[in-house]
Specification:
The protein has 79 residues and is mainly alpha-helical. It has one domain (20-75). It contains three helices and no strands. The protein has helices spanning 5-13, 26-46, 50-75. The chain starts with a helix and ends with a helix.
């Protein structure tokens, strides 16, 4: 398998990258995930127990993390 960088570049040009979630729907998905995470966090705050950590806390943190990443992708990060 002796391929140069130019051959790899040419092969990649024929198959463009297509993201799983289209750019137009990233903001909507981010908003839904962040809202869901915030709602689950509020419900979890009302009744904190070990069962609720698994049932509400973990899904809330995953929803907020995923929503934040999608929001970064949707609106960009400017420093």
């Amino acid at each position: 398998m002796d391929s140069s960088l130019h051959q790899v570049w040419q092969a990649a040009a024929g198959s463009p990258f297509l993201p799983v979630v289209a750019k137009e729907s990233q903001f909507t998905i981010a908003s839904v995930l962040l809202s869901l995470g915030l709602a689950l966090t509020g419900i979890f705050a009302l009744n904190r127990s070990l069962v609720n950590v698994i049932a509400l806390g973990v899904p809330a943190s995953l929803a907020i993390a995923g929503g934040t990443i999608y929001m970064f992708c949707a609106v960009g990060v400017y420093i």
